[in-house]
Every structure is written in structure tokens, then in C-alpha cells.
Amino acid sequence: MTRFNPNKLYKDPRNSRWLGVCAGIADYFDVRPGVVRLLTVIGALMTGIWGFLIAYLILGFVLERKPKEMYERPEEDEFWRQARTKPEYTAVDLRRRFEDIERRTRDMEAYVTSKRFRLDRELRSLED
Predict the structure, then answer these.
(1) Distance CA 34, CA 12 (A)
(2) How far apart are alpha carbons 17 and 22 in whole angstroms?
(3) Which residues pair with 65 in a beta bridge?
(4) How many whole angstroms separate alpha carbon 30 and alpha carbon 28?
(5) How confident is the model at residue 2 (pLDDT cuts 50, 70, 90)?
(6) Looking at the structure, do residues 11 and 53 belong to the same domain, yes or no?
(7) Within this chain, do residues 57 and 119 fall inside the same structural domain, yes or no?
(8) Within this chain, do residues 67 and 92 fall inside the same structural domain, yes or no?
């Protein structure tokens, strides 16, 4: 089993045009690769092509390839994308889920310790 970090920036050669750097950045920030490519070209034209080309090549050789098994389940993929792009919403969602689990656990404990539970259990034993 390959260990990977879902919060790490990877290059994405499967969705790439050249080395997969723009596709990896697009995947990391959850935007379309075409937007990143367009911004890269505009940035290169405005500031100098050679600086962007050198930076792109360095990133192309330094970044690791995105593992194929990184997002095996779509819900896991969506969770990590939201955690990267909107961490405050993810924290709120997790807090809400834990509060819901705690509420349901309290309800179960209240039922199991109630007289109603004992009565239901005795009635079920009479049916058998």
C-alpha cells in the first residue's frame, strides 16, 4: 500500500498537456486545468517567459506524480478537495457530524436505560 498525503501538491500526468504541473495545481485548488494554463500563459507573457519556463521545469521535475490510488472513493476525493479549498466549512461540517453522532448516542443510552426498553425486552421474550 502506497502512503500518500492528500494535502500535498502532486503533478498530474494523466490530465496533463506537458509535464502535468498545471493539471496538478488545478487538482490541488479544485479548479479546471484550462484556467490554470491560461493564467500561466498570461503570467508568463506579463512577467517574462524564461522565468516561468524555468519555474515550470523545476516544478515538473521536483513534484511527485499523483498516485493512481489516491482517490479511490469519490466521497473521499470530495472531502479532501474541500479540506484544501475551504477548511473552515470542513471543520463546521465535521463538528455538525460529531454533534449528530453524540445526540444519537445520548438518545440510545436514554432508551437502553429506560423502563420502556426493559418492558420491550420482556415482551419480546414472551413472544419467543
Answers:
(1) 14
(2) 8
(3) 11
(4) 6
(5) very low
(6) yes
(7) no
(8) no
* Count of domains for the chain: 2
More confident call, 42 vs 28: 42
> What nine digits make up the cell of 31?
479548479
**5 pLDDT exceeds 50?**
yes
What is the SS3 assignment for 100? helix
Please identify which residue in the block is written with the cell numbers 500535498. 8
Residue 35 pLDDT > 50, yes or no? yes
Residue range(s) defining the domain that contains residue 33:
1-71
DSSP 71: T
- Same structural domain, 33 and 94: no
Give the Cβ contact number of residue 43 at 10 Å: 14
- Half-sphere exposure of residue 11: CA atoms within 13 angstroms, side-chain side: 17
